[in-house]
Structure formats: structure tokens, C-alpha cells
Amino acid sequence: MVTTIIMILASAIIPLARVTATRTREAELHRALREMRTAIDKFKDAADLQNIAPTDLKAGADNYPPDLETLVAGVAANNDATGRKLKFLRRIPIDPMTHSTEWGMRSSQDKPDSTRWGGQNVFDVYTTFDGKALDGTKYKDW
């Protein structure tokens, strides 16, 4: 009798634990995407204000970073003889869905429905995980 009750309780707890773990990963994904998108926006703002040395800006990139690594490595500050670098990310966040630092990227020159990154710049990032969220949307569309 006791064993049956424990089995019933355990069968109710396991799905709840899975949903909780998924919610946690989704919250981490939202945080990572927000962190990278904020860094991209700060890079663009600094470039628009001419705070980044022109030698660190790629021609035709619309003042967006050429890749995510540039946000971590930093770029030279404009008119600064000390060699100070402007950094926008401490590290590239780990995608909680794929457990890697490989992110899907879009450039400002890519078509909205493009599935491949054109390589001109990084305008936006998304997860490469092909799954659906608890709310029914695709993670790639976040």
C-alpha cells in the first residue's frame, strides 16, 4: 500500500520536475539573448558616436560588430593613445539548449527569412536549437 502511494506521488513529481527544468533553461536562454543583443546595441551606439577607431570598423557593416568574438576581444577606442580597448561582453554566453557557444547570427544585409548568416556583420543572434518552447513558439524565433 505504501509503495503504491509512493509510486503515484513519484509519477506526479517527475513531469513537474521536467517542466521546471525546461522553464529554467528558457529563462537562461532569454538572459543570454538579452545580454548579447544589448552588447550588439552598445557596439552600434559606440560606433555611431565615433567612439570606436575607424580601423576596427568593417566597411559596409553598418557599424555593427563583424562577429561575436569582437564583442569579447574589444576594439580600440577612437583618439586614445593609451591603447585602451572598449569591450562589450566578458565572454560569449553558453546556449542553455545546445550547451555550446555556437549561436545563429543574422546580418543587417540578410533577408528576414534567411537561414544562413551572410557574414557581413552581426545584427541579431538566436539559438540553433530546433525545438518548441513551453508556450508553443520555436526557440529560434525568440
Structure in words:
The structure is a single chain. The protein is mostly helical. Helix content is 37%, strand content 7%. It has helices at residues 2-48, 68-73, and strands at residues 75-76, 85-86, 104-106, 124-126. The strands form 2 sheets. The chain has a two-stranded antiparallel ribbon. β1 and β2 form a beta hairpin. The longest helix has 47 residues, at 2-48. The protein is elongated and about 80 Å long. The model has no long low-confidence stretch (mean pLDDT 91).
Structural class: mainly alpha
Distance between termini?
47 Å
The biggest sheet, with number of strands, parallel, antiparallel or mixed sense and barrel status, is: 2 strands, antiparallel
Helix content: 25-40%
Q: What is Rg?
A: 21 Å
Q: What is the spatial order of strands in the main beta sheet?
A: 1-2
Percent of residues in beta strands: 5-15%
Count of alpha/pi helices: 2
What average pLDDT do the residues reach? 91
* Low-pLDDT sequence parts: none
Using the alpha-carbon principal axes, give the shape.
elongated
Q: Give the ordered list of helices and strands.
A: HHEEEE
Strand segment tally: 4
